[in-house]
Design goal:
By secondary structure, this protein is α/β, with parallel strands linked by helices. Helix content is 39%, strand content 11%. It has 3 domains: 10-40 and 73-189 and 224-388, no CATH class; 190-223, no CATH class; 416-591, 3-Layer(bba) Sandwich (Glucose Oxidase, domain 1). It is built from 25 helices and 12 strands. It has an 8-stranded mixed sheet with strand order 5-6-10-9-8-7-11-12. It has a 4-stranded parallel sheet with strand order 2-1-3-4, with helices on both faces. Helix 9 (164-173) links the parallel strand 3 and strand 4 (180-182). The longest helix is centred in the middle third of the chain and has 17 residues, at 259-275. The two termini are 45 Å apart.
Length: 597
């Protein structure tokens, strides 16, 4: 007899109940649509003969016979494979493994479609970053196109990086009647450490090392197929999927090309067979992803100091399942969920060290045991999330400097805070910021682009303490690019003894590091937000302790100021017009920057 699951912490239960009540009508509408799809007849009865012939035409004759005469289940493969992303390159060989395992268990697997997947590491600091955030919704649309044939009894979703996992998940939830399992590919082995790489970036920003030295360091860090080894958005994605019960337990951070990696991929196929349409344990993704699983995802994010991008992406994921969550909910969770992991940029360890110390399985197990996750939440495995993570092998290299228990955390609170005040609503990742920098008060220096800031730094103009205001970077302005190029110069200024912070309506992902950064400021400047009225020299107060983002200018004076106009678009970026509709339709950052609702 399985031990009874621990009671959910009262505060976690209260926040979940609040989200459920707020979402009651939209969730009911969503579940009704899911049920309507479940009630449709099987394609083999409901589709015309020509429709089915087209669906099966490319299959080998034996597979066609099995589907038609033996009624073999058909599993969709939707993959983000491409050779531009080191994390996704290993997926090239996955379909063959999946087809083989499906055949062994009486099913047929079809590659239903590929989704686009851009690499933010390549596009950082370029105009291509204007497409980055919106690529998530393009991926969601591409996933829906792949599943639109409606001949499948389940889907295997292959994706890892920043926008790819949220996009796949949003697309799958729009086909919420289908059971789905995510299949990770794992991180590259450790190369040059993230701390050494970042130190060389700072040296280069100061002009102390050559471009060739910097290039050597970057290549030594990013050196092989697999996910980058720092704990940014890509690896946070994998942690959240584990917490939602959409992975094989502890599959996230097993290196590509290993026997263990293939074993996890084959196990995912077997699990999908157990929950597919028509199976006794039928588990459609639209029912699995509920208020509990969304709360679990954010609890895991907070407990590991994960990427702030998910305060946009997983808000959008929740909305696609009819669930309405906001930053106040996440802030309340952060006040209750302890920080269990120290993984770069929140520590020296990389994700391979994290895996060796116990990995996602340890985090989920500890939080469930402490009642800080909903252990009873549905999982792709029988018995719920707590049962799936209740009996994992011991870590290969326990390390209390990397991973701790819920009873002995690094911090009693999570790594993300909500900031509010006369400059709007924003979030800050404090898990890597020294406590003495949690409150910054300094004069504003205003920039209308990342490039403008970098030019001022290169010209030697930034020699005093300041709060850098980098505005017109929101979804409606230019697609909300990540502003990673700001990190080395800001870090260099901080290391030189200056008091610095960043306030922006853009994104910084998991890479803001040790510099206090109030990001995702909403309303954004391009849509009338207060940042458009900030002027050089205004006194800015950023206080993560009190949750304050304020300006020492009275409201009357602020209102009387003429808001600055957004800068002219880069006329050389000829693909910008393709995404104009996305910018026009995008909701605010706290609403997930969704373009489809």
């Amino acid at each position: 007899m399985r031990p009874q699951e621990p009671m959910t912490d009262p505060k976690i239960a209260e926040i979940t109940a609040r989200i459920a009540e707020r979402s009651r009508e939209s969730r009911q509408r969503y579940l009704a649509r899911v049920q309507a799809m479940i009630d449709l007849p099987d394609a083999r009865e409901g589709f015309g003969c020509a429709n089915l012939a087209h669906a099966w035409a490319a299959l080998p004759g034996d597979d066609r016979l099995r589907i038609r005469s033996e009624r073999a289940p058909t599993l969709a493969i939707v993959s983000a494979f491409n050779e531009m992303l080191s994390a996704h390159a290993p997926y090239e060989g996955f379909p063959a493994v999946i087809r083989d395992e499906a055949m062994r268990h009486g099913a047929v697997a079809q590659f239903a479609g590929g989704v686009p997947a851009m690499c933010d590491g390549v596009t950082q600091g370029t105009s291509g970053m204007e497409l980055s955030l919106f690529s998530r919704d393009v991926i969601a649309q591409a996933t829906a196109v792949a599943l639109s044939h409606q001949v499948f009894q389940g889907a295997l979703l292959l994706g890892i990086c920043d926008k790819i996992v949220p996009g796949l998940l949003i697309g799958a939830l729009h086909f919420g009647h289908l059971p789905c399992v995510f299949v990770p590919a794992g991180p590259m082995p450790s190369g040059l450490s993230n701390a050494e790489k970042s130190a060389i970036r700072v040296q280069h920003a100061r002009g102390e090392v050559t471009r060739e030295t910097l290039q050597d360091a970057e290549i030594a860090a990013y050196h092989s197929p697999g996910t980058c080894t720092f704990y940014g958005t890509a690896n946070s994605n994998q942690m959240l999927l584990e917490a939602m019960g959409l992975h094989e337990p502890n599959a996230a951070f097993v290196n590509p090309g290993t026997a263990e990696r293939e074993a996890f991929t084959r196990a995912a196929v077997r699990t999908l067979m157990e929950i597919r349409t028509g199976a006794p344990r039928f588990t459609p993704i639209g029912r699995l992803v509920d208020e509990r699983s969304i709360v679990n995802a954010f609890c895991a994010l907070l407990a590991t100091g994960g990427s702030t991008n998910h305060l946009i992406h997983f808000v959008a994921v929740a909305r696609s399942a009819g669930i309405v969550i906001d930053w106040s909910d996440i802030d309340a969770l952060s006040a209750r969920v302890p920080l269990l992991a120290r993984v770069y940029p929140n520590g020296k360890a990389d994700v391979n060290d994290f895996q060796a110390a116990g990995g996602p399985g340890h985090v989920v197990h500890e939080l469930c045991k402490a009642g800080l996750m909903h252990a009873d939440a549905t999982s792709i495995h029988a018995g719920g999330l707590g049962a799936a993570y209740g009996d994992l092998p011991p870590p290969t290299r326990p390390d209390p400097d990397v991973l701790r228990t819920a009873a002995d955390p690094f911090s009693p609170q999570g790594g993300i805070r909500l900031l509010t005040g006369r400059l709007g609503r924003a979030v800050i990742k404090v898990s890597a910021v020294a406590p003495e920098r949690h409150r910054i008060e300094a004069p504003a220096r205003v920039f209308d682009s990342q490039q403008q800031f970098l030019a001022a730094y290169s010209a030697g103009e930034l020699t005093e303490s300041m709060v850098a205001i980098v505005r017109f970077q929101g979804p409606g302005a230019n697609g909300m690019p990540e502003l990673h190029k700001l990190t080395p110069p800001l870090t260099a200024m901080q290391n030189d003894g200056l008091t610095v912070a960043l306030v922006t309506d853009g994104r910084m992902s998991g890479a803001s590091g040790t510099v206090p950064a109030a990001i995702h400021v909403w309303p954004e400047a391009a849509r009338g937000g207060p940042l458009a009225r900030v002027q050089d020299g205004d006194r800015i107060i950023l206080d993560a302790r009190t949750g304050t983002l304020d300006i020492d200018v009275d409201s009357h004076t602020m209102a009387a100021r003429e808001p600055a106009a957004p800068p002219a678009a880069d006329s050389e970026f000829i693909t910008r017009d393709l995404f104009a509709g996305f910018r026009d339709r995008a909701l605010g950052a706290e609403e997930g920057a969704c373009t489809w609702t």
